[in-house]
Write a structure and sequence with these properties.
By secondary structure, the chain is of the alpha/beta class. It is built from 11 helices and 8 strands. Strands 1-2-3-4-5-6-7-8 form an 8-stranded mixed beta sheet. α9 (about 210-225) links the parallel β6 (about 200-205) and β7. α4 (about 85-95) runs parallel beside α5 (about 115-130). It is globular, with a radius of gyration of 18 Å.
Length: about 280
């Protein structure tokens, strides 16, 4: 029997969704025709975040040009870029009264700049009507293109997030169209281009990685001055996605957090249900 077929450990279970408490967010998203990674990636924290009147906005459509084996986001025909999306997101942030906004996207290798200009326009639109809002972006790798990354990080941004997701060894099976080295370089370039911003990355555990491999990643991230690291348990979103190798105990996340701190990582959020943009404002210092 596949491990994911077994019941989730108690510490990974979520309560019953209160549909009414998330109505405000759902109505605003629907009115503006906006997507969230919370919904498209089947995030286990969606109900909690929506109930708190927050969400991670996903720009550039619902469909990705890559097919990572851990991800539930669609990868069919890509959507036409909605040029009105930046203003609609800015208005949604205002309507929700957010003080901290997180913007992510699907990967768009089909676009000349990978969607960098659209990220830029979205950030500027948000600041135009929500000047005091702090902004975090969770971007794709833009194929490691310096100019495209520069276009995003030279905006009035607070946190630039790009996820490593897993270890170097596991990339070829979990993220076959991505590169561990390229993702590290993206984080390095972002900090070099704009030293004022905080850089951030997220990892999943439970895919077959070793503690030694994670330790090596913490060392590498410290070398490139990555400020914030999050780690959460991988939970298989559909039967089409890769299987869980094992579930980490809550105490193991505490152990990993101590290990990361000992290697120089400044800010951490390691927990079973931690996700890269989950409680992002609380992690930001």
């Amino acid at each position: 029997m596949e491990q994911q077929e077994k019941r989730l450990p108690a510490w990974l279970k979520r309560g019953i969704i209160d549909v009414e408490s998330s109505k405000v967010v759902r109505d605003i998203l629907s009115k503006n025709g906006l997507n969230t990674v919370c919904n498209e990636a089947r995030c286990p924290n969606k109900a909690e975040c929506y109930a708190k009147k927050t969400a991670t906005f996903m720009i550039l459509g619902k469909n990705c040009t890559r097919n990572c084996r851990f991800c539930a986001v669609g990868h069919n025909k890509t959507d036409k870029v909605n040029l009105l999306e930046p203003e609609k997101i800015a208005q949604a942030i205002k309507d929700l009264g957010l003080h901290y906004a997180v913007i992510t996207s699907v990967t768009r290798d089909d676009l000349p700049d990978g969607g960098a200009e659209h990220f830029k326009e979205t950030i500027l639109a948000i600041k135009n009507i929500n000047f005091n809002v702090r902004i975090e972006v969770l971007t794709p790798d833009f194929n490691g293109n310096y100019e495209h990354i520069k276009k995003v990080v030279q905006t009035p941004l607070d946190v630039f997030n790009h996820n490593l997701e897993t270890t170097k060894r596991l990339h070829k099976t979990i993220r076959p169209m991505a590169s561990f080295e390229r993702s590290l370089e993206v984080l390095k370039m972002a900090k070099e281009i704009n030293p004022k911003i905080k850089t951030k990355t997220g990892l999943m555990v439970g895919l077959g990685e070793t503690i030694e491999e994670l330790e090596e990643i913490f060392v590498e991230l410290n070398k490139i001055n990555c400020d914030i690291v999050t780690i959460g348990q991988y939970i298989r979103p559909t039967k089409q996605n890769t299987e869980v190798v094992r579930y980490y105990e809550p105490d193991e996340f505490k152990m990993l957090e101590k290990l990361a701190k000992s290697k120089g990582i400044k800010y951490t959020f390691f927990a079973p249900l931690a996700r890269s943009s989950y409680r992002a404002q609380e992690v930001f210092v």
